[in-house]
Protein backbone atom coordinates (compact mmCIF):
# COMPACT_ATOMS: atom_id res chain seq x y z
CA UNK A 1 0.00 0.00 0.00
CA UNK A 2 1.19 3.53 -0.47
CA UNK A 3 2.22 5.39 2.64
CA UNK A 4 -0.51 7.05 4.65
CA UNK A 5 -0.47 9.74 7.28
CA UNK A 6 -2.18 7.58 9.90
CA UNK A 7 -0.01 6.09 12.59
CA UNK A 8 -0.60 2.44 11.72
CA UNK A 9 0.39 2.73 8.07
CA UNK A 10 3.59 0.83 8.83
CA UNK A 11 1.67 -2.29 9.79
CA UNK A 12 -0.44 -2.50 6.64
CA UNK A 13 0.80 -5.31 4.41
CA UNK A 14 2.19 -7.36 7.29
CA UNK A 15 1.51 -11.05 7.46
CA UNK A 16 -2.03 -11.34 8.80
CA UNK A 17 -2.91 -15.01 8.90
CA UNK A 18 -6.46 -16.09 8.19
CA UNK A 19 -8.43 -19.29 8.18
CA UNK A 20 -10.80 -18.31 5.38
CA UNK A 21 -10.73 -21.05 2.74
CA UNK A 22 -11.17 -20.57 -1.00
CA UNK A 23 -14.85 -21.05 -1.83
CA UNK A 24 -15.47 -23.72 -4.50
CA UNK A 25 -17.70 -21.24 -6.41
CA UNK A 26 -14.48 -19.89 -7.94
CA UNK A 27 -14.24 -22.99 -10.13
CA UNK A 28 -17.44 -21.90 -11.85
CA UNK A 29 -15.43 -18.97 -13.28
CA UNK A 30 -12.15 -20.73 -14.08
CA UNK A 31 -11.50 -22.82 -17.20
CA UNK A 32 -8.70 -24.77 -18.81
CA UNK A 33 -5.87 -22.41 -19.72
CA UNK A 34 -7.23 -19.44 -17.80
CA UNK A 35 -4.88 -16.94 -16.19
CA UNK A 36 -5.51 -16.07 -12.56
CA UNK A 37 -4.14 -13.21 -10.48
CA UNK A 38 -4.09 -13.65 -6.70
CA UNK A 39 -3.99 -10.15 -5.20
CA UNK A 40 -2.54 -10.05 -1.68
CA UNK A 41 -1.42 -13.66 -2.08
CA UNK A 42 0.46 -13.81 1.25
CA UNK A 43 1.96 -17.29 1.79
CA UNK A 44 0.30 -18.75 -1.32
CA UNK A 45 -2.62 -20.33 0.47
CA UNK A 46 -4.87 -19.63 -2.51
CA UNK A 47 -2.32 -19.45 -5.35
CA UNK A 48 -0.94 -22.92 -4.69
CA UNK A 49 -4.28 -24.81 -4.72
CA UNK A 50 -5.17 -22.97 -7.94
CA UNK A 51 -1.82 -23.92 -9.49
CA UNK A 52 -2.36 -27.52 -8.38
CA UNK A 53 -5.55 -27.39 -10.48
CA UNK A 54 -3.34 -26.61 -13.45
CA UNK A 55 -4.17 -22.94 -13.84
CA UNK A 56 -1.60 -20.30 -14.72
CA UNK A 57 -1.37 -18.25 -11.51
CA UNK A 58 0.39 -15.04 -10.57
CA UNK A 59 0.45 -14.00 -6.92
CA UNK A 60 1.33 -10.49 -5.78
CA UNK A 61 1.93 -9.21 -2.28
CA UNK A 62 3.66 -6.16 -0.84
CA UNK A 63 5.31 -8.26 1.84
CA UNK A 64 8.48 -10.02 0.67
CA UNK A 65 8.64 -12.19 3.80
CA UNK A 66 5.36 -13.97 2.98
CA UNK A 67 6.36 -14.24 -0.67
CA UNK A 68 9.41 -16.29 0.40
CA UNK A 69 7.09 -18.55 2.38
CA UNK A 70 4.86 -18.91 -0.70
CA UNK A 71 7.84 -19.84 -2.86
CA UNK A 72 9.15 -22.45 -0.44
CA UNK A 73 5.76 -24.08 0.17
CA UNK A 74 5.37 -24.21 -3.59
CA UNK A 75 8.60 -26.17 -3.95
CA UNK A 76 7.39 -28.79 -1.48
CA UNK A 77 4.23 -29.40 -3.54
CA UNK A 78 3.72 -30.91 -6.93
CA UNK A 79 2.35 -27.92 -8.88
CA UNK A 80 1.60 -28.60 -12.57
CA UNK A 81 2.42 -24.97 -13.18
CA UNK A 82 4.59 -23.03 -10.74
CA UNK A 83 2.84 -19.80 -9.75
CA UNK A 84 4.70 -16.59 -10.44
CA UNK A 85 5.09 -14.83 -7.09
CA UNK A 86 6.01 -11.18 -7.33
CA UNK A 87 6.29 -8.21 -5.02
CA UNK A 88 3.62 -5.75 -5.98
CA UNK A 89 1.37 -2.98 -4.71
CA UNK A 90 -2.30 -3.76 -5.31
CA UNK A 91 -2.99 -0.10 -6.12
CA UNK A 92 -0.41 -0.13 -8.99
CA UNK A 93 -0.20 -3.69 -10.31
CA UNK A 94 2.85 -4.62 -12.41
CA UNK A 95 0.74 -6.09 -15.25
CA UNK A 96 -0.60 -4.85 -18.56
CA UNK A 97 -4.30 -4.13 -19.13
CA UNK A 98 -6.52 -7.15 -19.85
CA UNK A 99 -3.96 -9.79 -18.81
CA UNK A 100 -6.08 -12.06 -16.58
CA UNK A 101 -9.35 -13.98 -16.82
CA UNK A 102 -9.92 -14.15 -13.07
CA UNK A 103 -8.64 -12.11 -10.12
CA UNK A 104 -8.85 -13.30 -6.51
CA UNK A 105 -8.88 -11.34 -3.25
CA UNK A 106 -9.12 -13.80 -0.40
CA UNK A 107 -9.44 -12.01 2.95
CA UNK A 108 -7.27 -9.25 1.52
CA UNK A 109 -9.46 -6.12 1.50
CA UNK A 110 -9.97 -6.50 5.25
CA UNK A 111 -6.30 -5.50 5.64
CA UNK A 112 -6.63 -2.34 3.53
CA UNK A 113 -7.24 0.52 5.91
CA UNK A 114 -8.33 3.35 3.65
CA UNK A 115 -11.53 3.47 1.63
CA UNK A 116 -9.74 5.31 -1.15
CA UNK A 117 -7.14 2.55 -1.46
CA UNK A 118 -9.84 -0.11 -1.56
CA UNK A 119 -11.44 1.71 -4.50
CA UNK A 120 -8.06 2.07 -6.24
CA UNK A 121 -7.40 -1.63 -5.73
CA UNK A 122 -10.72 -2.65 -7.29
CA UNK A 123 -10.18 -0.32 -10.27
CA UNK A 124 -6.69 -1.75 -10.70
CA UNK A 125 -8.03 -5.33 -10.62
CA UNK A 126 -10.55 -4.23 -13.24
CA UNK A 127 -7.82 -2.81 -15.42
CA UNK A 128 -5.74 -6.01 -15.50
CA UNK A 129 -8.79 -8.23 -16.13
CA UNK A 130 -9.93 -9.05 -19.64
CA UNK A 131 -13.40 -7.82 -20.68
CA UNK A 132 -16.06 -9.92 -18.90
CA UNK A 133 -13.31 -11.19 -16.57
CA UNK A 134 -14.28 -12.12 -13.02
CA UNK A 135 -13.16 -10.80 -9.66
CA UNK A 136 -13.69 -13.19 -6.75
CA UNK A 137 -13.69 -11.63 -3.28
CA UNK A 138 -14.07 -13.42 0.04
CA UNK A 139 -14.00 -11.17 3.06
CA UNK A 140 -15.29 -10.53 6.54
CA UNK A 141 -18.70 -9.01 7.30
CA UNK A 142 -19.64 -6.73 10.19
CA UNK A 143 -20.88 -9.00 12.94
CA UNK A 144 -23.03 -6.83 15.16
CA UNK A 145 -24.69 -9.79 16.89
CA UNK A 146 -21.35 -10.67 18.45
CA UNK A 147 -20.85 -8.65 21.62
CA UNK A 148 -17.07 -8.91 21.21
CA UNK A 149 -17.05 -7.39 17.72
CA UNK A 150 -19.85 -4.90 18.45
CA UNK A 151 -17.75 -3.46 21.27
CA UNK A 152 -14.58 -3.44 19.17
CA UNK A 153 -16.28 -1.54 16.32
CA UNK A 154 -17.68 1.02 18.74
CA UNK A 155 -14.68 1.42 21.03
CA UNK A 156 -12.14 1.66 18.20
CA UNK A 157 -14.17 4.06 16.05
CA UNK A 158 -12.54 7.10 17.67
CA UNK A 159 -9.18 5.86 16.39
CA UNK A 160 -10.09 4.09 13.14
CA UNK A 161 -12.65 6.73 12.02
CA UNK A 162 -14.46 4.03 10.07
CA UNK A 163 -17.35 1.92 11.34
CA UNK A 164 -16.52 -1.78 11.19
CA UNK A 165 -12.77 -1.26 11.60
CA UNK A 166 -10.93 -2.32 14.74
CA UNK A 167 -7.49 -2.65 16.26
CA UNK A 168 -5.84 -6.00 16.88
CA UNK A 169 -3.02 -6.35 19.37
CA UNK A 170 -0.20 -8.84 19.64
CA UNK A 171 -1.23 -11.22 22.41
CA UNK A 172 2.31 -11.53 23.74
CA UNK A 173 3.69 -8.01 23.50
CA UNK A 174 0.41 -6.10 23.78
CA UNK A 175 1.52 -3.92 20.86
CA UNK A 176 -0.80 -2.90 18.05
CA UNK A 177 -0.46 -5.72 15.50
CA UNK A 178 -2.79 -4.57 12.75
CA UNK A 179 -6.01 -2.78 11.87
CA UNK A 180 -8.73 -4.78 10.14
CA UNK A 181 -12.00 -3.84 8.53
CA UNK A 182 -15.24 -5.82 8.48
CA UNK A 183 -17.55 -4.90 5.62
CA UNK A 184 -21.25 -4.34 5.26
CA UNK A 185 -22.95 -5.87 2.22
CA UNK A 186 -23.66 -2.35 0.97
CA UNK A 187 -19.99 -1.36 1.19
CA UNK A 188 -18.75 -4.37 -0.76
CA UNK A 189 -21.47 -4.07 -3.40
CA UNK A 190 -20.81 -0.36 -4.00
CA UNK A 191 -17.04 -0.95 -4.02
CA UNK A 192 -17.65 -3.23 -7.00
CA UNK A 193 -20.35 -1.35 -8.91
CA UNK A 194 -18.63 2.03 -8.55
CA UNK A 195 -15.31 0.67 -9.81
CA UNK A 196 -16.09 -1.21 -13.00
CA UNK A 197 -17.95 -4.37 -11.99
CA UNK A 198 -21.43 -5.85 -11.93
CA UNK A 199 -22.26 -8.20 -9.05
CA UNK A 200 -22.65 -11.68 -10.57
CA UNK A 201 -22.70 -13.83 -7.42
CA UNK A 202 -23.19 -13.01 -3.75
CA UNK A 203 -23.27 -15.32 -0.74
CA UNK A 204 -23.58 -14.67 2.98
CA UNK A 205 -21.31 -17.03 4.84
CA UNK A 206 -19.69 -17.68 8.21
CA UNK A 207 -15.93 -17.40 8.53
CA UNK A 208 -13.54 -18.18 11.34
CA UNK A 209 -11.00 -15.49 12.20
CA UNK A 210 -7.36 -16.18 13.05
CA UNK A 211 -8.30 -15.92 16.72
CA UNK A 212 -11.00 -18.57 16.32
CA UNK A 213 -14.04 -16.28 16.41
CA UNK A 214 -17.03 -17.01 14.16
CA UNK A 215 -17.98 -13.95 12.15
CA UNK A 216 -20.08 -13.07 9.13
CA UNK A 217 -18.42 -13.39 5.76
CA UNK A 218 -19.19 -12.67 2.13
CA UNK A 219 -18.21 -14.47 -1.04
CA UNK A 220 -18.74 -12.16 -4.00
CA UNK A 221 -17.99 -12.48 -7.69
CA UNK A 222 -17.97 -9.36 -9.84
CA UNK A 223 -17.95 -9.32 -13.65
CA UNK A 224 -15.96 -6.62 -15.43
CA UNK A 225 -18.44 -4.50 -17.33
CA UNK B 1 -50.07 1.16 14.95
CA UNK B 2 -50.89 4.57 16.30
CA UNK B 3 -51.62 7.25 13.75
CA UNK B 4 -48.67 8.97 12.13
CA UNK B 5 -48.30 12.17 10.22
CA UNK B 6 -46.86 10.48 7.14
CA UNK B 7 -49.14 9.96 4.19
CA UNK B 8 -49.02 6.16 4.15
CA UNK B 9 -50.00 5.69 7.79
CA UNK B 10 -53.39 4.42 6.68
CA UNK B 11 -51.86 1.38 5.01
CA UNK B 12 -49.86 0.22 7.99
CA UNK B 13 -51.44 -2.86 9.55
CA UNK B 14 -53.01 -4.03 6.31
CA UNK B 15 -52.76 -7.61 5.30
CA UNK B 16 -49.26 -8.03 3.88
CA UNK B 17 -48.79 -11.66 2.94
CA UNK B 18 -45.40 -13.28 3.35
CA UNK B 19 -43.81 -16.59 2.59
CA UNK B 20 -41.37 -16.55 5.50
CA UNK B 21 -41.77 -19.77 7.45
CA UNK B 22 -41.35 -20.21 11.19
CA UNK B 23 -37.74 -21.29 11.84
CA UNK B 24 -37.45 -24.54 13.84
CA UNK B 25 -34.98 -22.83 16.21
CA UNK B 26 -38.04 -21.49 18.05
CA UNK B 27 -38.65 -24.94 19.51
CA UNK B 28 -35.37 -24.64 21.38
CA UNK B 29 -37.05 -21.90 23.45
CA UNK B 30 -40.52 -23.40 23.91
CA UNK B 31 -41.43 -26.04 26.50
CA UNK B 32 -44.45 -27.98 27.68
CA UNK B 33 -46.99 -25.58 29.15
CA UNK B 34 -45.28 -22.43 27.89
CA UNK B 35 -47.31 -19.38 26.92
CA UNK B 36 -46.55 -17.80 23.57
CA UNK B 37 -47.56 -14.41 22.20
CA UNK B 38 -47.64 -14.00 18.41
CA UNK B 39 -47.31 -10.26 17.73
CA UNK B 40 -48.70 -9.22 14.35
CA UNK B 41 -50.22 -12.67 13.95
CA UNK B 42 -52.07 -11.87 10.69
CA UNK B 43 -53.96 -14.96 9.44
CA UNK B 44 -52.51 -17.24 12.12
CA UNK B 45 -49.78 -18.72 9.97
CA UNK B 46 -47.50 -18.95 13.00
CA UNK B 47 -50.03 -19.11 15.85
CA UNK B 48 -51.78 -22.18 14.46
CA UNK B 49 -48.68 -24.38 14.01
CA UNK B 50 -47.62 -23.41 17.54
CA UNK B 51 -51.07 -24.29 18.90
CA UNK B 52 -50.93 -27.60 17.02
CA UNK B 53 -47.76 -28.31 19.03
CA UNK B 54 -49.91 -27.98 22.16
CA UNK B 55 -48.68 -24.58 23.32
CA UNK B 56 -50.93 -21.94 24.80
CA UNK B 57 -50.89 -19.22 22.14
CA UNK B 58 -52.28 -15.70 21.97
CA UNK B 59 -52.19 -13.87 18.64
CA UNK B 60 -52.64 -10.12 18.30
CA UNK B 61 -53.06 -8.04 15.20
CA UNK B 62 -54.40 -4.58 14.51
CA UNK B 63 -56.27 -5.80 11.44
CA UNK B 64 -59.63 -7.41 12.26
CA UNK B 65 -60.01 -8.83 8.74
CA UNK B 66 -56.97 -11.08 9.08
CA UNK B 67 -58.01 -12.06 12.59
CA UNK B 68 -61.26 -13.45 11.16
CA UNK B 69 -59.20 -15.47 8.68
CA UNK B 70 -57.05 -16.75 11.57
CA UNK B 71 -60.14 -17.78 13.51
CA UNK B 72 -61.70 -19.64 10.61
CA UNK B 73 -58.53 -21.47 9.58
CA UNK B 74 -58.17 -22.48 13.20
CA UNK B 75 -61.62 -24.08 13.19
CA UNK B 76 -60.70 -26.21 10.20
CA UNK B 77 -57.66 -27.63 11.98
CA UNK B 78 -57.33 -29.86 14.96
CA UNK B 79 -55.65 -27.57 17.50
CA UNK B 80 -55.03 -29.12 20.92
CA UNK B 81 -55.43 -25.65 22.32
CA UNK B 82 -57.34 -22.99 20.42
CA UNK B 83 -55.22 -19.84 20.15
CA UNK B 84 -56.73 -16.67 21.55
CA UNK B 85 -56.89 -14.20 18.68
CA UNK B 86 -57.38 -10.59 19.75
CA UNK B 87 -57.31 -7.19 18.16
CA UNK B 88 -54.36 -5.33 19.59
CA UNK B 89 -51.83 -2.61 18.93
CA UNK B 90 -48.27 -3.91 19.28
CA UNK B 91 -47.19 -0.64 20.87
CA UNK B 92 -49.76 -1.01 23.69
CA UNK B 93 -50.40 -4.72 24.20
CA UNK B 94 -53.56 -5.75 26.11
CA UNK B 95 -51.67 -8.02 28.51
CA UNK B 96 -50.22 -7.72 31.99
CA UNK B 97 -46.48 -7.57 32.65
CA UNK B 98 -44.62 -10.91 32.64
CA UNK B 99 -47.45 -12.93 31.07
CA UNK B 100 -45.58 -14.88 28.37
CA UNK B 101 -42.55 -17.16 28.12
CA UNK B 102 -41.97 -16.56 24.42
CA UNK B 103 -42.97 -13.79 22.01
CA UNK B 104 -42.86 -14.16 18.23
CA UNK B 105 -42.59 -11.53 15.48
CA UNK B 106 -42.60 -13.32 12.16
CA UNK B 107 -42.01 -10.86 9.29
CA UNK B 108 -43.88 -8.27 11.33
CA UNK B 109 -41.35 -5.49 12.01
CA UNK B 110 -40.86 -5.07 8.25
CA UNK B 111 -44.38 -3.60 8.15
CA UNK B 112 -43.71 -1.06 10.92
CA UNK B 113 -42.74 2.17 9.23
CA UNK B 114 -41.38 4.29 12.05
CA UNK B 115 -38.19 3.58 13.98
CA UNK B 116 -39.82 4.94 17.13
CA UNK B 117 -42.71 2.50 16.84
CA UNK B 118 -40.32 -0.41 16.32
CA UNK B 119 -38.55 0.52 19.57
CA UNK B 120 -41.90 0.87 21.38
CA UNK B 121 -42.97 -2.53 20.08
CA UNK B 122 -39.79 -4.24 21.32
CA UNK B 123 -40.11 -2.57 24.74
CA UNK B 124 -43.74 -3.67 24.92
CA UNK B 125 -42.82 -7.27 24.02
CA UNK B 126 -40.20 -7.06 26.77
CA UNK B 127 -42.81 -5.86 29.27
CA UNK B 128 -45.23 -8.75 28.65
CA UNK B 129 -42.45 -11.39 28.73
CA UNK B 130 -41.45 -13.10 31.95
CA UNK B 131 -37.88 -12.52 33.20
CA UNK B 132 -35.46 -14.46 30.95
CA UNK B 133 -38.29 -14.86 28.44
CA UNK B 134 -37.41 -15.09 24.75
CA UNK B 135 -38.34 -12.92 21.78
CA UNK B 136 -38.05 -14.65 18.39
CA UNK B 137 -37.83 -12.36 15.37
CA UNK B 138 -37.61 -13.40 11.73
CA UNK B 139 -37.39 -10.53 9.29
CA UNK B 140 -36.00 -9.28 6.01
CA UNK B 141 -32.44 -8.01 5.58
CA UNK B 142 -31.22 -5.28 3.25
CA UNK B 143 -30.19 -7.00 0.03
CA UNK B 144 -27.78 -4.65 -1.68
CA UNK B 145 -26.44 -7.31 -4.03
CA UNK B 146 -29.86 -7.45 -5.71
CA UNK B 147 -30.08 -4.72 -8.34
CA UNK B 148 -33.87 -4.63 -7.94
CA UNK B 149 -33.76 -3.94 -4.22
CA UNK B 150 -30.70 -1.67 -4.40
CA UNK B 151 -32.58 0.58 -6.80
CA UNK B 152 -35.74 0.48 -4.70
CA UNK B 153 -33.88 1.48 -1.52
CA UNK B 154 -32.16 4.35 -3.32
CA UNK B 155 -35.08 5.59 -5.42
CA UNK B 156 -37.61 5.47 -2.58
CA UNK B 157 -35.34 7.09 0.03
CA UNK B 158 -36.59 10.57 -0.85
CA UNK B 159 -40.10 9.46 0.16
CA UNK B 160 -39.42 6.93 2.92
CA UNK B 161 -36.60 8.94 4.56
CA UNK B 162 -35.14 5.68 5.84
CA UNK B 163 -32.49 3.61 4.09
CA UNK B 164 -33.73 0.09 3.43
CA UNK B 165 -37.40 1.11 3.20
CA UNK B 166 -39.30 0.99 -0.08
CA UNK B 167 -42.73 1.40 -1.59
CA UNK B 168 -44.74 -1.52 -2.92
CA UNK B 169 -47.54 -0.96 -5.38
CA UNK B 170 -50.63 -3.00 -6.15
CA UNK B 171 -49.84 -4.79 -9.40
CA UNK B 172 -53.39 -4.41 -10.69
CA UNK B 173 -54.38 -0.90 -9.67
CA UNK B 174 -50.89 0.63 -9.55
CA UNK B 175 -51.78 2.22 -6.22
CA UNK B 176 -49.38 2.32 -3.28
CA UNK B 177 -50.07 -0.93 -1.43
CA UNK B 178 -47.66 -0.71 1.48
CA UNK B 179 -44.26 0.47 2.68
CA UNK B 180 -41.84 -2.17 3.87
CA UNK B 181 -38.49 -1.99 5.62
CA UNK B 182 -35.51 -4.28 5.17
CA UNK B 183 -33.13 -4.29 8.13
CA UNK B 184 -29.39 -4.25 8.57
CA UNK B 185 -27.93 -6.61 11.15
CA UNK B 186 -26.82 -3.56 13.14
CA UNK B 187 -30.35 -2.14 13.21
CA UNK B 188 -31.95 -5.34 14.46
CA UNK B 189 -29.25 -5.95 17.06
CA UNK B 190 -29.51 -2.42 18.47
CA UNK B 191 -33.31 -2.58 18.43
CA UNK B 192 -32.99 -5.51 20.82
CA UNK B 193 -30.12 -4.42 23.05
CA UNK B 194 -31.44 -0.88 23.48
CA UNK B 195 -34.89 -2.10 24.46
CA UNK B 196 -34.39 -4.72 27.14
CA UNK B 197 -32.88 -7.76 25.42
CA UNK B 198 -29.59 -9.58 24.98
CA UNK B 199 -29.00 -11.30 21.64
CA UNK B 200 -29.04 -15.05 22.33
CA UNK B 201 -29.18 -16.43 18.77
CA UNK B 202 -28.56 -14.88 15.37
CA UNK B 203 -28.70 -16.46 11.93
CA UNK B 204 -28.28 -15.03 8.45
CA UNK B 205 -30.77 -16.64 6.14
CA UNK B 206 -32.41 -16.34 2.74
CA UNK B 207 -36.11 -15.55 2.54
CA UNK B 208 -38.56 -15.40 -0.32
CA UNK B 209 -40.76 -12.31 -0.52
CA UNK B 210 -44.45 -12.38 -1.46
CA UNK B 211 -43.43 -11.42 -4.98
CA UNK B 212 -41.06 -14.39 -5.23
CA UNK B 213 -37.77 -12.50 -4.85
CA UNK B 214 -34.93 -14.05 -2.87
CA UNK B 215 -33.65 -11.64 -0.24
CA UNK B 216 -31.50 -11.70 2.85
CA UNK B 217 -33.23 -12.57 6.10
CA UNK B 218 -32.42 -12.78 9.77
CA UNK B 219 -33.63 -15.12 12.49
CA UNK B 220 -32.89 -13.62 15.88
CA UNK B 221 -33.72 -14.67 19.41
CA UNK B 222 -33.41 -12.12 22.21
CA UNK B 223 -33.48 -12.91 25.93
CA UNK B 224 -35.15 -10.49 28.30
CA UNK B 225 -32.44 -9.14 30.58
Automatic annotation (TrEMBL), chains A, B:
GO molecular function: S-adenosylmethionine-dependent methyltransferase activity
Family annotation (PROSITE patterns): PIPLC_X_DOMAIN
Name the UniProt record assigns to this protein: Class I SAM-dependent methyltransferase
Claim: Transferase is one of the keywords in the record: yes
Species per Swiss-Prot/TrEMBL record: Methanolobus mangrovi
Pfam families hit by this protein: Methyltransf_11
PANTHER family cross-referenced by the UniProt entry: METHYLTRANSFERASE
Keyword annotations from UniProtKB, A to Z: Methyltransferase, Transferase
Lineage: Archaea, Methanobacteriati, Methanobacteriota, Stenosarchaea group, Methanomicrobia
Keyword Transmembrane helix carried by entry: no
Source species, domain of life: Archaea
Occurrences of domain Methyltransferase type (ranges): 37-137
GO BP: methylation
InterPro entries registered for this protein in UniProt: Methyltransf_11, SAM-dependent_MTases_sf
Amino acid sequence: MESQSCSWSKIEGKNIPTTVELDPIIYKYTFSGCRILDIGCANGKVSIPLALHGYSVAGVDINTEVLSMAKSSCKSQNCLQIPLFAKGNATILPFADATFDVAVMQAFLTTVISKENRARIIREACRVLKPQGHLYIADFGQTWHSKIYRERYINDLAVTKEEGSFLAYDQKTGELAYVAHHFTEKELVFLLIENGFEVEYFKNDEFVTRTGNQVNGFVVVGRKE
